[in-house]
Amino acid sequence: MVKAYLRYEPALTFGVIASPESNVAYDPSGRRLLAGALDRFAAWDLKRGLPSVSFAPSSSSPSLAVSCVASSRSAAASSSIASGHADGSIRLWDAETGACEATLHGHRSAASALRFAPSGAVLASGSKDCDVILWDVVAQAGLFRLRGHRDQVTDLVFLDSGKKLVSCSKDKFIRVWDLDTQHCLQIVGGHRSEIWSMDVDPNERFLVSGSADPELRVFKIRQSAEEGDDWSKWDVLKLFGEIPRQSKERVATVRFNSSGGLVACQVAGKTVDFYRVLDETEAARKAKRRMHRKKEKALAKSTAAEGNGTVIDPIPAQGLQNPAVIVTDVFKLLQVLRATKKICSIAFSPSNPSKGCLATLSLSLNNNMLETYSVDSEKVSKMYSIEMHGHRSDIRSVSLNSEDNLLMSTSHNAVKIWNPSTGDCLRTIDSGYGLCSAFVPGNRYALVGTKSGTLEVIDIASGSSIEAIEAHAGSIRSIVLIPDEDGTVGARGFVTGSADHDVKFWEYQMVQKPDSDSKQLTVANVRTLQMTEDVLAVSVSPNGKFIAVALLDCLVKVYHMDTLKFSLSLYGHKLPVLCMDISSDGALIVTGSADKNLKIWGMDFGDCHKSIFAHADSVMDVKFVYKTHYMFSVGKDRTVKYWDADKFELLLTLEGHHAQVWCLTISSRGDFIVTGSHDRSIRRWDRTEEQLFIEEEKEKRLEETFEADLDNDIEHRYGQKDDAPDEGSVAVPGRKTKETVTSADAIMDALDAAEEEQKRIDQHEEEQRNGRGAAFQPNVIMQGRSPSDYVLNVISNVRPNDLEQALLSLPFSDALKLMYYLKEWSLVPSKVELVSRICLVLLQTHHNQLTTTQSARSLLTELKDILYHKVKVCKDTIGFNLAAMDHLKELLAMRSDAPFRDAKAKLMEIRQEQSKRSDKSDGNERRKKKRKKASGES
Asked: What angle (nearest 5°) sits at the alpha carbon of residue 741, between those of residues 739 and 746?
């Protein structure tokens, strides 16, 4: 009989607030901040410091790491949030529910930039594969691919109400694309290093780009085709000037605030520079002042020159009257924000700032934190900080209490207590660099062993460290509780192993608090076992009779617990043993080493039962499931593996972590495990009721390997010809994936089944005409549909983004069969758009063969007349509905603010007149002061 096991699956991920690979952005409402956290992202309520909505893909994998997020400001867009991932896929999300609306495949490598058009119906994505793809958000399909950049696309900006797109790249060039004609209008050079970011102000006056150059470049944007004689015919951008930067580090992000009056320049370090953007009136006034100062300096120089007999050229009068506005007249350095750690990304809040505040800026730091600052003309002040929900650095140990309802994790400066069922952080306690930890029986106290050799006793209820004992001279690598003889964890004490060559035995003591009647826990050293090498791991047998010690010389020594006499020596690993565990029946001991192997030994004679090549890198932790010979191991290869130690078989590989997995703990019932990683995440994996079989899992692993090789083959079959694309070329947006191949197979199968069914129907009708027809038995696969409806249903179920690539995979014979169904489908009003798409793709792909095939010509002629008429009807209906909606919108607007509209306009006129008067009075006062000053000097 084949043995069945129960499957473990990912259940919960917590501990990551913001990963450094992704940017941050505000959601459409402007109240919540979107921050990428490994393969998912969350919308954070900044005031409460809690995540409101979590956006997670259906599967968890390092290839799905979020590389960029963007949101649409348009209220009309249904899918208003988009995320780009490391595998090149783009996902569209519902902002309120967190549901994934669509997955778009087009890029061959990680998405690096996302931007919604002002309408919210079009999304532009840039990638490390140097391509820019435009996506239809409503139809959830690709529009076209723009090629021309020679390196990673770093940022994207829409201009002219979404009719033009500007892209910048590491190839040092900015490209302007006309989206109507799908070609490159302008290529802008000038940067001497890779361009990392750019942005345009809301009024589309200026575009600012940043690179590793010591200045920001500012470009003027052409507002209309008739504007200016000094513009070239097709140019959209013209260099306005350069702003010198404060920092020497490269620019990481450039962003304007929602009003356009402020621009922030974040460098790849700890600072953000804020520049004030002056309007035309203020800029002209500043230019006049600059020219006036220049005139005064010139007068001073000419006065000095007259004495020397030299002649100075006078400043032209026209330049004094109407001075040209230069970039420094418009952009003025306002403030510099200095953060405590390196800044990864910034985002301005689109909401209106509070009174006296110019803008609100949120930023993500590389130590897993989010901070929000208010910016005013005097200072930059911190408003909110989100840091409780994660560690500042990687997690080095995790442990569960006896009831499995509290989880403790340690990092370089803090210990956190979590609720493992919800992922909520309950306590944060400052500590040293914790390498190992354990709960004391009773679950009121916990122990932490640190890198400096101190042993910290933590009171969980108060969330404080009550005592730090100098336990060892070197780092403490292991804390193991000593069980009673029946296998339960009692109050016998615990053992610590350290790099100072000592294994120390401790017992618990309750002492009186000096300032109160209550007692608190302390520990005392009762015995010490001295070793010849650094102790890397310690394990105690469940009956408390043996202690195993792993040393730096690759040996594992087993001693009797009561006498500390030597019992066994386990020799065989080529590199030091980093972890080990003894099964609950005391029969087996498993050791994991830096040589990537797991070795299973018998505790009776110390013989090696089996050596298994377990991980692709060092094995960091291994644990037996209680009362079984099943075990889990984790390693630096990012995987968690489930083994049967009796059959020496790999049962399951759990993938999800994005970096080395350092530690592991298993619940007392074995119903879930918890792992901690270098990526700062804590993951819980739950045991399900689903059974798994070893042979099936082996077949799955072989299939996955084969499919991965197949994907690589498809990707690189014709070499790297796309590395040098044609200048400003356009290509198909999608790419061939397993889904598109499966969809193409489904369409071909449906066409074959429908053809067979149609033959059976024709044969039955012939028999009925001859008077010998029996009752017709329809094909069960058709589900009661006609052949035409069956094929239409299969094609309708193909995702819009995969449809084009699936149709491209069809051979001409199947494409011709499909064309014959289009005439009938076009009579269904809701399918006109789908029929038009299919017809267009098939015509573009098989144009030559269709026009030379006699039977296809008449079909194309019929389709031409039918589709033109049907598309016109659909267009007229949509136009009528849009006009009606605009009319309704106007009616509602007139009802809502009709009494106040005239008053509002009048108020604006009065304010403008007042501002003009104040400007004139200021100018008159300045002139009077200057006259008085001049008369006083004379």
From this structure: 90
